[in-house]
Amino acid sequence: LTPRVLVDGVAAGRLPATDRGLQYGDGLFETLAVRGSAPCLWSAHFERLSLGAQRLGLPCPPEELLLRECRRLTNASAPCVLKIILTRGSGGRGYRPPAHPRPTRILMRHPWPDHPPAWYEEGVDVVFCRMRLGSNPALARIKHLNRLEQVLARAEIGDPRIAEGIMCDGEGRVIGGTMSNLFAVAGDRLLTPRLDGCGIAGTVRAQVLRLAGAGGLEAEETDLTPGDLAAADGMFLTNSLIGVWPVRRMESSTFGLESLPERLIREVRELALTP
Amino acid sequence: LTPRVLVDGVAAGRLPATDRGLQYGDGLFETLAVRGSAPCLWSAHFERLSLGAQRLGLPCPPEELLLRECRRLTNASAPCVLKIILTRGSGGRGYRPPAHPRPTRILMRHPWPDHPPAWYEEGVDVVFCRMRLGSNPALARIKHLNRLEQVLARAEIGDPRIAEGIMCDGEGRVIGGTMSNLFAVAGDRLLTPRLDGCGIAGTVRAQVLRLAGAGGLEAEETDLTPGDLAAADGMFLTNSLIGVWPVRRMESSTFGLESLPERLIREVRELALTP
Fold this sequence. Notes:
Two copies of one chain form a homodimer. In chain A, 26% of the residues lie in helices and 29% in strands. The longest helix of chain A has 15 residues, at 42-56. The relative contact order of chain A is 0.15. With 275 residues, chain A is of the alpha+beta class. In chain A, the strands form two sheets. In chain A, strands 7, 8, 9, 10, 11, 12, 13, 14 and 15 form a nine-stranded mixed beta sheet that branches.
Protein backbone atom coordinates (compact mmCIF):
# COMPACT_ATOMS: atom_id res chain seq x y z
CA LEU A 1 0.00 0.00 0.00
CA THR A 2 1.27 3.46 -0.84
CA PRO A 3 1.55 5.60 2.31
CA ARG A 4 -0.22 8.97 2.46
CA VAL A 5 2.24 10.67 4.82
CA LEU A 6 5.98 10.31 5.39
CA VAL A 7 7.55 11.87 8.48
CA ASP A 8 11.34 11.83 8.09
CA GLY A 9 10.96 9.00 5.61
CA VAL A 10 8.76 6.86 7.84
CA ALA A 11 5.16 6.06 6.89
CA ALA A 12 3.63 7.72 9.95
CA GLY A 13 0.85 10.21 10.25
CA ARG A 14 1.95 11.74 13.55
CA LEU A 15 4.77 13.85 14.89
CA PRO A 16 5.96 15.01 18.33
CA ALA A 17 3.96 17.79 19.98
CA THR A 18 7.33 19.38 20.75
CA ASP A 19 7.99 20.06 17.07
CA ARG A 20 8.74 23.74 16.51
CA GLY A 21 6.60 23.71 13.39
CA LEU A 22 3.62 23.38 15.73
CA GLN A 23 5.01 25.41 18.61
CA TYR A 24 5.94 28.52 16.60
CA GLY A 25 5.21 27.91 12.92
CA ASP A 26 9.00 27.57 12.71
CA GLY A 27 9.28 26.10 9.24
CA LEU A 28 8.37 26.15 5.57
CA PHE A 29 6.12 24.38 3.10
CA GLU A 30 5.60 23.76 -0.59
CA THR A 31 2.48 22.59 -2.41
CA LEU A 32 3.06 20.85 -5.73
CA ALA A 33 1.02 19.39 -8.54
CA VAL A 34 1.99 15.76 -9.24
CA ARG A 35 1.36 14.15 -12.64
CA GLY A 36 2.52 10.69 -13.64
CA SER A 37 4.14 10.27 -10.20
CA ALA A 38 6.40 13.26 -10.81
CA PRO A 39 6.15 16.75 -9.28
CA CYS A 40 5.62 19.70 -11.62
CA LEU A 41 7.88 22.80 -11.58
CA TRP A 42 10.09 20.87 -9.19
CA SER A 43 13.20 23.04 -9.58
CA ALA A 44 11.27 26.21 -8.80
CA HIS A 45 9.71 24.65 -5.69
CA PHE A 46 12.98 23.25 -4.43
CA GLU A 47 14.70 26.58 -5.07
CA ARG A 48 12.10 28.44 -2.99
CA LEU A 49 12.35 25.84 -0.22
CA SER A 50 16.15 26.24 -0.20
CA LEU A 51 15.88 30.02 -0.12
CA GLY A 52 13.40 29.82 2.76
CA ALA A 53 15.66 27.40 4.65
CA GLN A 54 18.55 29.80 4.20
CA ARG A 55 16.47 32.71 5.53
CA LEU A 56 15.33 30.72 8.57
CA GLY A 57 18.77 29.22 9.18
CA LEU A 58 17.55 25.66 8.56
CA PRO A 59 19.51 22.91 6.85
CA CYS A 60 17.60 21.92 3.69
CA PRO A 61 17.26 18.20 2.92
CA PRO A 62 19.02 16.99 -0.23
CA GLU A 63 16.98 17.37 -3.41
CA GLU A 64 17.37 13.68 -4.27
CA LEU A 65 15.99 12.57 -0.90
CA LEU A 66 12.86 14.70 -1.31
CA LEU A 67 12.34 13.46 -4.87
CA ARG A 68 12.72 9.85 -3.76
CA GLU A 69 10.19 10.30 -0.94
CA CYS A 70 7.86 12.10 -3.32
CA ARG A 71 7.96 9.06 -5.61
CA ARG A 72 7.20 6.73 -2.70
CA LEU A 73 4.05 8.71 -1.91
CA THR A 74 2.77 9.28 -5.42
CA ASN A 75 3.90 6.08 -7.09
CA ALA A 76 1.46 5.18 -9.88
CA SER A 77 -1.15 7.53 -8.52
CA ALA A 78 -3.59 9.67 -10.49
CA PRO A 79 -2.87 13.41 -10.58
CA CYS A 80 -2.56 14.50 -6.96
CA VAL A 81 -1.21 17.19 -4.67
CA LEU A 82 2.05 16.83 -2.77
CA LYS A 83 2.67 18.97 0.27
CA ILE A 84 6.17 19.20 1.72
CA ILE A 85 6.64 20.68 5.20
CA LEU A 86 10.09 21.38 6.61
CA THR A 87 10.31 22.40 10.28
CA ARG A 88 13.16 23.15 12.66
CA GLY A 89 12.31 19.91 14.50
CA SER A 90 12.03 19.57 18.26
CA GLY A 91 14.13 21.59 20.60
CA GLY A 92 13.58 23.28 23.92
CA ARG A 93 10.80 25.46 25.23
CA GLY A 94 11.27 29.06 24.23
CA TYR A 95 11.86 30.89 20.96
CA ARG A 96 15.63 30.42 20.81
CA PRO A 97 16.31 27.88 18.08
CA PRO A 98 18.69 25.01 18.88
CA ALA A 99 22.26 25.61 17.67
CA HIS A 100 22.18 22.39 15.64
CA PRO A 101 18.58 21.81 14.60
CA ARG A 102 17.47 18.43 13.31
CA PRO A 103 14.72 19.44 10.91
CA THR A 104 11.55 17.43 10.47
CA ARG A 105 10.40 16.80 6.90
CA ILE A 106 6.82 15.83 6.25
CA LEU A 107 5.51 14.81 2.85
CA MET A 108 1.77 14.37 2.39
CA ARG A 109 -0.33 13.29 -0.56
CA HIS A 110 -3.71 14.94 -1.10
CA PRO A 111 -6.41 14.35 -3.72
CA TRP A 112 -6.46 16.63 -6.73
CA PRO A 113 -8.86 19.53 -6.03
CA ASP A 114 -12.04 19.39 -8.10
CA HIS A 115 -12.60 23.04 -9.01
CA PRO A 116 -15.40 23.69 -11.53
CA PRO A 117 -14.05 23.49 -15.14
CA ALA A 118 -15.81 26.80 -15.84
CA TRP A 119 -13.37 28.56 -13.51
CA TYR A 120 -10.56 27.78 -15.97
CA GLU A 121 -12.54 28.53 -19.12
CA GLU A 122 -14.87 31.40 -18.23
CA GLY A 123 -13.04 32.86 -15.26
CA VAL A 124 -13.67 33.16 -11.53
CA ASP A 125 -15.43 35.60 -9.23
CA VAL A 126 -13.31 37.16 -6.49
CA VAL A 127 -13.86 39.58 -3.61
CA PHE A 128 -11.63 41.69 -1.39
CA CYS A 129 -10.87 40.38 2.09
CA ARG A 130 -11.01 42.72 5.08
CA MET A 131 -8.05 40.89 6.66
CA ARG A 132 -4.78 42.66 5.87
CA LEU A 133 -1.28 41.26 5.47
CA GLY A 134 1.34 42.50 7.93
CA SER A 135 4.62 43.54 6.33
CA ASN A 136 8.02 42.12 7.15
CA PRO A 137 10.69 42.05 4.43
CA ALA A 138 12.52 39.28 6.31
CA LEU A 139 9.57 36.94 5.81
CA ALA A 140 8.31 38.15 2.44
CA ARG A 141 8.36 35.92 -0.68
CA ILE A 142 9.18 32.68 1.16
CA LYS A 143 6.52 30.08 1.99
CA HIS A 144 6.82 29.87 5.77
CA LEU A 145 4.33 28.26 8.14
CA ASN A 146 2.95 31.47 9.71
CA ARG A 147 -0.29 31.63 7.75
CA LEU A 148 -2.95 32.83 10.16
CA GLU A 149 -3.65 35.90 8.04
CA GLN A 150 -4.49 33.73 5.05
CA VAL A 151 -6.63 31.40 7.18
CA LEU A 152 -8.65 34.29 8.60
CA ALA A 153 -8.96 35.92 5.18
CA ARG A 154 -10.25 32.67 3.66
CA ALA A 155 -12.72 32.30 6.52
CA GLU A 156 -14.37 35.56 5.43
CA ILE A 157 -15.57 33.93 2.21
CA GLY A 158 -18.70 31.90 2.87
CA ASP A 159 -20.09 31.79 -0.67
CA PRO A 160 -18.70 28.72 -2.50
CA ARG A 161 -19.14 30.51 -5.84
CA ILE A 162 -16.37 32.93 -4.83
CA ALA A 163 -13.14 31.28 -5.93
CA GLU A 164 -10.63 33.50 -4.19
CA GLY A 165 -10.17 36.50 -1.89
CA ILE A 166 -7.83 39.38 -2.70
CA MET A 167 -5.64 40.68 0.14
CA CYS A 168 -4.01 44.07 0.68
CA ASP A 169 -1.21 45.07 3.02
CA GLY A 170 -1.67 47.53 5.89
CA GLU A 171 -1.17 50.47 3.52
CA GLY A 172 -3.91 49.28 1.18
CA ARG A 173 -1.62 47.95 -1.55
CA VAL A 174 -2.90 44.84 -3.30
CA ILE A 175 -0.62 41.86 -2.61
CA GLY A 176 -2.44 38.88 -4.10
CA GLY A 177 -5.03 36.21 -3.45
CA THR A 178 -5.13 34.22 -0.22
CA MET A 179 -3.61 31.26 -2.10
CA SER A 180 -2.61 32.78 -5.43
CA ASN A 181 -0.62 35.50 -7.13
CA LEU A 182 -2.40 38.11 -9.18
CA PHE A 183 -1.75 39.72 -12.57
CA ALA A 184 -3.55 42.68 -14.17
CA VAL A 185 -3.47 43.61 -17.85
CA ALA A 186 -3.47 47.35 -18.56
CA GLY A 187 -3.03 48.08 -22.26
CA ASP A 188 0.15 46.26 -23.29
CA ARG A 189 1.45 46.13 -19.73
CA LEU A 190 1.23 43.11 -17.47
CA LEU A 191 1.29 44.20 -13.82
CA THR A 192 1.74 42.17 -10.64
CA PRO A 193 2.23 43.34 -7.05
CA ARG A 194 5.74 43.83 -5.74
CA LEU A 195 6.34 41.42 -2.85
CA ASP A 196 8.95 43.36 -0.87
CA GLY A 197 7.05 43.35 2.42
CA CYS A 198 4.65 40.43 2.22
CA GLY A 199 3.14 37.85 -0.08
CA ILE A 200 4.58 34.63 -1.48
CA ALA A 201 6.67 34.61 -4.65
CA GLY A 202 4.78 31.88 -6.49
CA THR A 203 6.44 29.37 -8.78
CA VAL A 204 3.84 29.92 -11.52
CA ARG A 205 4.10 33.69 -11.02
CA ALA A 206 7.80 33.37 -11.86
CA GLN A 207 6.94 31.55 -15.09
CA VAL A 208 4.54 34.31 -16.10
CA LEU A 209 7.18 36.98 -15.47
CA ARG A 210 9.78 34.97 -17.37
CA LEU A 211 7.62 34.24 -20.42
CA ALA A 212 5.72 37.52 -20.67
CA GLY A 213 8.40 39.33 -22.68
CA ALA A 214 8.29 36.73 -25.47
CA GLY A 215 4.59 37.48 -25.97
CA GLY A 216 5.18 41.21 -26.56
CA LEU A 217 3.94 42.13 -23.08
CA GLU A 218 5.97 44.30 -20.74
CA ALA A 219 5.80 42.53 -17.36
CA GLU A 220 6.23 44.69 -14.30
CA GLU A 221 6.29 44.20 -10.53
CA THR A 222 4.71 47.33 -9.12
CA ASP A 223 2.41 48.91 -6.51
CA LEU A 224 -1.27 48.30 -7.26
CA THR A 225 -4.35 49.65 -5.51
CA PRO A 226 -7.82 48.10 -5.58
CA GLY A 227 -8.72 51.01 -7.88
CA ASP A 228 -5.95 50.04 -10.30
CA LEU A 229 -7.40 46.53 -10.46
CA ALA A 230 -10.93 47.80 -11.03
CA ALA A 231 -9.63 49.94 -13.91
CA ALA A 232 -7.62 47.10 -15.51
CA ASP A 233 -8.57 45.53 -18.84
CA GLY A 234 -8.25 42.02 -17.43
CA MET A 235 -6.97 40.00 -14.52
CA PHE A 236 -5.80 36.49 -13.78
CA LEU A 237 -4.63 34.44 -10.79
CA THR A 238 -1.87 31.85 -10.63
CA ASN A 239 -0.73 29.06 -8.36
CA SER A 240 0.82 25.60 -8.62
CA LEU A 241 -2.44 23.71 -8.58
CA ILE A 242 -4.76 25.99 -10.55
CA GLY A 243 -2.12 27.08 -13.06
CA VAL A 244 -4.08 30.11 -14.28
CA TRP A 245 -7.60 31.28 -13.49
CA PRO A 246 -8.90 34.27 -15.44
CA VAL A 247 -10.93 36.68 -13.30
CA ARG A 248 -14.46 37.36 -14.56
CA ARG A 249 -15.75 39.49 -11.74
CA MET A 250 -14.19 41.34 -8.80
CA GLU A 251 -16.83 42.83 -6.48
CA SER A 252 -18.85 45.07 -8.85
CA SER A 253 -16.22 45.14 -11.64
CA THR A 254 -16.46 42.70 -14.53
CA PHE A 255 -13.64 41.78 -16.89
CA GLY A 256 -13.63 40.34 -20.37
CA LEU A 257 -11.23 37.54 -21.16
CA GLU A 258 -10.36 38.94 -24.59
CA SER A 259 -7.66 41.27 -23.24
CA LEU A 260 -5.77 38.42 -21.55
CA PRO A 261 -2.56 37.13 -23.14
CA GLU A 262 -3.99 33.88 -24.48
CA ARG A 263 -0.76 32.32 -25.71
CA LEU A 264 1.13 33.18 -22.54
CA ILE A 265 -1.63 31.68 -20.41
CA ARG A 266 -1.66 28.52 -22.51
CA GLU A 267 2.10 28.11 -22.18
CA VAL A 268 2.09 28.76 -18.44
CA ARG A 269 -0.77 26.35 -17.87
CA GLU A 270 1.10 23.64 -19.69
CA LEU A 271 4.33 24.30 -17.78
CA ALA A 272 2.49 24.29 -14.46
CA LEU A 273 1.19 20.78 -15.11
CA THR A 274 4.27 19.25 -16.74
CA PRO A 275 6.60 17.22 -14.52
CA LEU B 1 3.76 8.10 36.56
CA THR B 2 2.69 11.65 35.82
CA PRO B 3 2.49 12.24 32.06
CA ARG B 4 4.48 15.09 30.49
CA VAL B 5 2.11 15.78 27.60
CA LEU B 6 -1.66 15.46 27.19
CA VAL B 7 -3.18 15.66 23.70
CA ASP B 8 -6.95 16.02 24.01
CA GLY B 9 -6.72 14.53 27.46
CA VAL B 10 -4.69 11.49 26.39
CA ALA B 11 -1.16 10.94 27.66
CA ALA B 12 0.45 11.03 24.20
CA GLY B 13 3.38 12.96 22.91
CA ARG B 14 2.33 13.01 19.27
CA LEU B 15 -0.36 14.54 17.11
CA PRO B 16 -1.51 14.18 13.49
CA ALA B 17 0.64 15.85 10.84
CA THR B 18 -2.64 17.17 9.40
CA ASP B 19 -3.19 19.40 12.44
CA ARG B 20 -3.70 23.01 11.35
CA GLY B 21 -1.52 24.18 14.22
CA LEU B 22 1.41 22.69 12.30
CA GLN B 23 0.10 23.38 8.80
CA TYR B 24 -0.58 27.10 9.28
CA GLY B 25 0.15 28.08 12.86
CA ASP B 26 -3.65 28.10 13.14
CA GLY B 27 -3.98 28.29 16.90
CA LEU B 28 -3.01 29.84 20.22
CA PHE B 29 -0.85 29.15 23.23
CA GLU B 30 -0.32 30.11 26.86
CA THR B 31 2.75 29.65 29.05
CA LEU B 32 2.09 29.53 32.79
CA ALA B 33 4.08 29.28 35.99
CA VAL B 34 2.88 26.36 38.14
CA ARG B 35 3.44 26.34 41.92
CA GLY B 36 2.06 23.73 44.27
CA SER B 37 0.39 21.98 41.31
CA ALA B 38 -1.66 25.09 40.55
CA PRO B 39 -1.22 27.55 37.68
CA CYS B 40 -0.46 31.19 38.55
CA LEU B 41 -2.49 34.11 37.16
CA TRP B 42 -4.88 31.49 35.78
CA SER B 43 -7.82 33.83 35.17
CA ALA B 44 -5.69 36.22 33.14
CA HIS B 45 -4.29 33.38 31.03
CA PHE B 46 -7.68 31.80 30.44
CA GLU B 47 -9.15 35.18 29.55
CA ARG B 48 -6.46 35.81 26.92
CA LEU B 49 -6.92 32.30 25.52
CA SER B 50 -10.69 32.89 25.28
CA LEU B 51 -10.17 36.26 23.60
CA GLY B 52 -7.75 34.67 21.11
CA ALA B 53 -10.19 31.83 20.42
CA GLN B 54 -12.91 34.38 19.75
CA ARG B 55 -10.66 36.30 17.34
CA LEU B 56 -9.69 33.14 15.44
CA GLY B 57 -13.22 31.75 15.49
CA LEU B 58 -12.25 28.72 17.58
CA PRO B 59 -14.36 27.10 20.28
CA CYS B 60 -12.48 27.44 23.59
CA PRO B 61 -12.37 24.38 25.87
CA PRO B 62 -14.17 24.75 29.22
CA GLU B 63 -12.05 26.32 31.95
CA GLU B 64 -12.67 23.38 34.30
CA LEU B 65 -11.41 20.86 31.73
CA LEU B 66 -8.15 22.75 31.26
CA LEU B 67 -7.66 23.11 35.01
CA ARG B 68 -8.30 19.41 35.54
CA GLU B 69 -5.77 18.44 32.84
CA CYS B 70 -3.29 20.93 34.27
CA ARG B 71 -3.58 19.17 37.65
CA ARG B 72 -3.03 15.77 36.01
CA LEU B 73 0.26 17.00 34.50
CA THR B 74 1.62 18.93 37.45
CA ASN B 75 0.30 16.85 40.31
CA ALA B 76 2.71 17.08 43.27
CA SER B 77 5.46 18.45 41.06
CA ALA B 78 8.06 21.06 41.96
CA PRO B 79 7.58 24.51 40.43
CA CYS B 80 7.31 23.96 36.68
CA VAL B 81 6.09 25.49 33.45
CA LEU B 82 2.79 24.57 31.84
CA LYS B 83 2.27 25.25 28.17
CA ILE B 84 -1.22 25.06 26.70
CA ILE B 85 -1.64 24.95 22.92
CA LEU B 86 -5.07 25.19 21.30
CA THR B 87 -5.26 24.58 17.54
CA ARG B 88 -8.09 24.42 15.03
CA GLY B 89 -7.49 20.67 14.75
CA SER B 90 -7.26 18.73 11.51
CA GLY B 91 -9.29 19.69 8.51
CA GLY B 92 -8.66 19.74 4.79
CA ARG B 93 -5.77 20.98 2.70
CA GLY B 94 -5.99 24.70 2.08
CA TYR B 95 -6.40 27.76 4.22
CA ARG B 96 -10.19 27.65 4.51
CA PRO B 97 -11.00 26.58 8.06
CA PRO B 98 -13.58 23.81 8.52
CA ALA B 99 -17.07 25.09 9.32
CA HIS B 100 -17.18 23.06 12.52
CA PRO B 101 -13.61 22.75 13.77
CA ARG B 102 -12.71 20.17 16.39
CA PRO B 103 -9.87 21.94 18.17
CA THR B 104 -6.83 20.10 19.46
CA ARG B 105 -5.68 20.97 22.97
CA ILE B 106 -2.16 20.13 24.05
CA LEU B 107 -0.88 20.58 27.58
CA MET B 108 2.84 20.14 28.23
CA ARG B 109 4.91 20.27 31.39
CA HIS B 110 8.42 21.77 31.22
CA PRO B 111 11.10 22.18 33.90
CA TRP B 112 11.32 25.52 35.65
CA PRO B 113 13.91 27.69 33.80
CA ASP B 114 17.11 28.23 35.79
CA HIS B 115 17.91 31.87 35.06
CA PRO B 116 20.78 33.36 37.12
CA PRO B 117 19.46 34.81 40.42
CA ALA B 118 21.47 37.98 39.69
CA TRP B 119 19.11 38.74 36.78
CA TYR B 120 16.29 39.26 39.28
CA GLU B 121 18.36 41.17 41.85
CA GLU B 122 20.86 43.21 39.85
CA GLY B 123 19.07 43.37 36.51
CA VAL B 124 19.68 42.01 33.02
CA ASP B 125 21.58 43.11 29.92
CA VAL B 126 19.52 43.48 26.75
CA VAL B 127 20.19 44.39 23.12
CA PHE B 128 18.06 45.50 20.17
CA CYS B 129 17.18 42.88 17.57
CA ARG B 130 17.43 43.71 13.88
CA MET B 131 14.34 41.59 13.18
CA ARG B 132 11.21 43.73 13.09
CA LEU B 133 7.63 42.88 14.00
CA GLY B 134 5.05 43.11 11.21
CA SER B 135 1.86 44.95 12.16
CA ASN B 136 -1.63 43.54 11.96
CA PRO B 137 -4.26 44.82 14.41
CA ALA B 138 -6.29 41.63 13.86
CA LEU B 139 -3.50 39.54 15.38
CA ALA B 140 -2.11 42.00 17.93
CA ARG B 141 -2.27 41.32 21.68
CA ILE B 142 -3.34 37.66 21.40
CA LYS B 143 -0.86 34.80 21.80
CA HIS B 144 -1.23 33.01 18.47
CA LEU B 145 1.10 30.37 17.05
CA ASN B 146 2.68 32.52 14.29
CA ARG B 147 5.96 33.28 16.04
CA LEU B 148 8.67 33.15 13.38
CA GLU B 149 9.59 36.78 13.99
CA GLN B 150 10.34 36.04 17.64
CA VAL B 151 12.29 32.89 16.75
CA LEU B 152 14.47 34.75 14.25
CA ALA B 153 14.94 37.66 16.65
CA ARG B 154 16.04 35.31 19.44
CA ALA B 155 18.43 33.58 17.04
CA GLU B 156 20.30 36.90 16.66
CA ILE B 157 21.46 36.70 20.29
CA GLY B 158 24.43 34.39 20.62
CA ASP B 159 25.86 35.70 23.89
CA PRO B 160 24.29 33.81 26.84
CA ARG B 161 24.89 36.83 29.10
CA ILE B 162 22.27 38.75 27.11
CA ALA B 163 18.95 37.96 28.76
CA GLU B 164 16.58 39.38 26.20
CA GLY B 165 16.29 41.14 22.83
CA ILE B 166 14.15 44.23 22.29
CA MET B 167 12.02 44.33 19.14
CA CYS B 168 10.60 47.26 17.16
CA ASP B 169 7.85 47.36 14.57
CA GLY B 170 8.42 48.32 10.94
CA GLU B 171 8.16 52.02 11.81
CA GLY B 172 10.84 51.76 14.49
CA ARG B 173 8.51 51.89 17.49
CA VAL B 174 9.60 49.73 20.42
CA ILE B 175 7.10 46.91 21.03
CA GLY B 176 8.75 44.74 23.69
CA GLY B 177 11.17 41.87 24.28
CA THR B 178 11.07 38.69 22.22
CA MET B 179 9.39 36.91 25.14
CA SER B 180 8.54 39.78 27.50
CA ASN B 181 6.75 43.10 27.84
CA LEU B 182 8.72 46.22 28.61
CA PHE B 183 8.24 49.16 30.99
CA ALA B 184 10.24 52.38 31.18
CA VAL B 185 10.29 54.80 34.11
CA ALA B 186 10.54 58.49 33.15
CA GLY B 187 10.21 60.75 36.19
CA ASP B 188 6.93 59.77 37.84
CA ARG B 189 5.56 58.22 34.67
CA LEU B 190 5.55 54.51 33.92
CA LEU B 191 5.51 53.92 30.15
CA THR B 192 4.88 50.78 28.15
CA PRO B 193 4.43 50.34 24.38
CA ARG B 194 0.94 50.44 22.92
CA LEU B 195 0.14 47.08 21.34
CA ASP B 196 -2.36 48.16 18.67
CA GLY B 197 -0.51 46.61 15.74
CA CYS B 198 1.70 43.90 17.20
CA GLY B 199 3.06 42.44 20.41
CA ILE B 200 1.43 40.25 23.02
CA ALA B 201 -0.61 41.71 25.87
CA GLY B 202 1.12 39.91 28.73
CA THR B 203 -0.68 38.75 31.84
CA VAL B 204 2.00 40.24 34.12
CA ARG B 205 1.97 43.45 32.06
CA ALA B 206 -1.74 43.76 32.89
CA GLN B 207 -0.95 43.43 36.62
CA VAL B 208 1.64 46.20 36.38
CA LEU B 209 -0.83 48.52 34.62
CA ARG B 210 -3.51 47.67 37.16
CA LEU B 211 -1.37 48.18 40.27
CA ALA B 212 0.75 51.14 39.12
CA GLY B 213 -1.76 53.79 40.14
CA ALA B 214 -1.79 52.65 43.76
CA GLY B 215 1.95 53.30 43.95
CA GLY B 216 1.61 56.93 42.89
CA LEU B 217 2.85 56.22 39.37
CA GLU B 218 0.95 57.30 36.29
CA ALA B 219 0.95 54.25 34.00
CA GLU B 220 0.62 54.92 30.30
CA GLU B 221 0.48 52.86 27.10
CA THR B 222 2.24 54.97 24.51
CA ASP B 223 4.60 55.13 21.51
CA LEU B 224 8.24 54.65 22.50
CA THR B 225 11.38 54.91 20.37
CA PRO B 226 14.75 53.32 21.16
CA GLY B 227 15.88 56.87 22.01
CA ASP B 228 13.07 57.21 24.56
CA LEU B 229 14.29 54.03 26.24
CA ALA B 230 17.91 55.18 26.27
CA ALA B 231 16.79 58.42 27.93
CA ALA B 232 14.63 56.67 30.56
CA ASP B 233 15.52 56.62 34.27
CA GLY B 234 14.96 52.89 34.50
CA MET B 235 13.49 49.91 32.71
CA PHE B 236 12.07 46.50 33.51
CA LEU B 237 10.74 43.45 31.68
CA THR B 238 7.81 41.22 32.59
CA ASN B 239 6.44 37.81 31.71
CA SER B 240 4.68 34.90 33.40
CA LEU B 241 7.82 32.96 34.22
CA ILE B 242 10.30 35.72 35.08
CA GLY B 243 7.78 37.93 36.83
CA VAL B 244 9.94 41.06 36.66
CA TRP B 245 13.52 41.56 35.50
CA PRO B 246 15.04 45.00 36.01
CA VAL B 247 17.19 46.13 33.07
CA ARG B 248 20.77 47.05 33.98
CA ARG B 249 22.18 47.68 30.54
CA MET B 250 20.71 48.18 27.05
CA GLU B 251 23.40 48.37 24.36
CA SER B 252 25.59 51.27 25.58
CA SER B 253 23.02 52.68 28.04
CA THR B 254 23.14 51.71 31.70
CA PHE B 255 20.29 52.07 34.17
CA GLY B 256 20.24 52.28 37.94
CA LEU B 257 17.66 50.24 39.81
CA GLU B 258 16.93 53.02 42.31
CA SER B 259 14.38 54.73 40.03
CA LEU B 260 12.29 51.57 39.71
CA PRO B 261 9.01 51.29 41.65
CA GLU B 262 10.24 48.84 44.27
CA ARG B 263 6.95 48.17 46.01
CA LEU B 264 5.06 47.71 42.73
CA ILE B 265 7.67 45.26 41.49
CA ARG B 266 7.54 43.30 44.75
CA GLU B 267 3.74 43.05 44.56
CA VAL B 268 3.74 42.05 40.91
CA ARG B 269 6.43 39.42 41.46
CA GLU B 270 4.40 37.89 44.24
CA LEU B 271 1.21 37.89 42.18
CA ALA B 272 3.01 36.33 39.22
CA LEU B 273 4.08 33.35 41.31
CA THR B 274 0.94 32.88 43.39
CA PRO B 275 -1.55 30.25 42.22
